[in-house]
Amino acid sequence: MTDRHNKAVAMIAANVRQFYDGKEKFRIFHGSTNSTRPLDLQRDKVIDLSQLNSVLEVNTKARTVLVEPNVPMDRLVQTTMKYGLVPPVVMEFPGITVGGGYAGTSGESSSFKHGFFDRTINYVEMVLANGEIVIASDHEKADLFHGAAGAAGSLGVTTLVELRLEEAKAFVETTYHPVESTSEAIQKCQEVTADPKLDYVDGILYSKEQGVIITGRLTNELQPGLNMQHFSRAKDPWFYVHAQNAARKPGPTTEAIPLVDYLFRYDRGGFWVGAYGFNYFMVPFNRLTRWFLDEFLRTRMMYRALHASGYSHQFVVQDLALPYSTAEKFVDYTNKAFGLYPLWLCPLRQSPLPTLHPHSAETGADEKAQQPLLNIGLWGPGPTNSDAFVKVNRELEHKLQVLGGTKWLYAHTYYTETEFWNIYDRKWYDALRAKYDATSLPSVWEKVKVKVEALSWRSKLASLWPICGLRGLFRAFWSGEYLLARESRWKSIEEKDRVD
Question: How far apart are CA 108 and CA 91, in angstroms?
Fold first, then answer.
């Protein structure tokens, strides 16, 4: 398998070199995407990485896994769990890939403890823009290793990753802490993230007066009388619906969730974004309809439908990271400007500066230690008029900057080039681009910015109800993505699957 990998990388490097010699910029095709930006690929200017989709080795002694960039989270976890191991940071959507987690930004419910996904990587193999194959780590080309994290492939092409693993325990003992205000939710996040016994923390605000902070602890032992709850089967509740029931109770409630069910608990319904589809098609939102439409409401199908429909031009999907000190003001702003609920809350450990990840200059009392951030997930319908949609997103970006926050770059990004580099360290980034011969690649701003163009009459027609939704649904079904969910074995990993 290593020989196959080396031959594939050599071919990729040769193709990259051809673009370099011809002074042409290229894009990278992974075979799938979890970005909500409109896709912009020219077939003759693409490097195809879709064949780099294998787990090469699990080293139980070193607790590492050698994995190619196109391996999705569910297959990675399915493989490592056979050895009783799991990555410390697992993206909540099964289809997000290892390479996407490194080239983008992935902060999950364990990130208050471990940081972003790339902070759990030992080294990466990369093809530079000139075709050279290199290894980057904390000890070798460390500037490239940290700079390429979150750089959207603008410093080179990632072809292999060595990822750290930890012991995989059977369950996550999960506790739901009801809160009655934004300030209480933020205070609770700060309180629980200081507890070293916890492994996972996130939260959901259902309104300004109702929310829940959810904590998790890995364990192999079920406490007597503790309820066992699944979330991966069609008959199971959607996690956010289940959590809201817990939020209505007068005090904390605890239950056990099988580890893999916990890791991918938001797959069904894509947090709660899938619920908007019921409204769009005027279908009742209940347990029966969710069960019947289950295969269409997993995140792989939802991303496929989103891109096929063109609905991303009317749907706000933004992840924003703010200091705790301004998070409540930001929620007050989104409440007035968007009125979208639920909101996701996820505490984050910052990466060292400079970085292209979300960050804040706020420090502690010693004026050195970086302070934790709070990720606020804002997802829901926006204005249907394209000018109004751009306007509210631009206002959101401005307000975020005023409050000392930054955003994930997977989403619609409208910053001008000047605005963008007022947020990120251009001198540092340009120096890396020059040092590693990457100036022939599209810059990170070029890769993430959304082209604001007037819609053609065909695009306007295609965006009308119900044409937009039906087109997305049909193309998603035709893609066969639902078969991946149906055939996935991560939902039924058992002790007999373990490798001794």
Answer: 6
Minimal CA–CA distance to 448: which of 213, 152, 126?
A: 152
Q: What is the dihedral of CA 131, 136, 140, 141, to 10 degrees?
A: 60
Query: What is the value of pTM for the model shown?
Result: 0.92
- Burial of 479 from C-beta contacts in 10 A (0-12 / 13-18 / 19+): middle
> What CA–CA distances, in Å, run from 58 to 78, 80, 164, 166, 272?
12, 7, 10, 12, 34
| CB neighbour list of residue 462: distance below 8 Å, 6 or more residues apart | 310, 468, 471
CA–CA separation, 256 and 234 (whole Å): 19
| Residue 27 DSSP one-character state | E
Angle at 10 between CA 6 and CA 14, to 5 degrees: 170
Task: Write phi, then psi, for 300 (nearest 5 degrees).
Answer: -60, -45
Q: Which two tokens stand for residue 444?
A: 């990170």
- Let me know how many helices (H) and strands (E) the chain has, helices first: 19, 17
**Cis peptide preceding 466, ω within 30 of 0:** yes
Q: What element of type H or E holds 253?
A: strand 253-258
pLDDT in tens, 82-138: 999 999 999 999 999 999 999 999 999 999 999 999 999 999 999 999 999 999 999
Euclidean distance between CA atoms 241 and 363, whole angstroms: 36
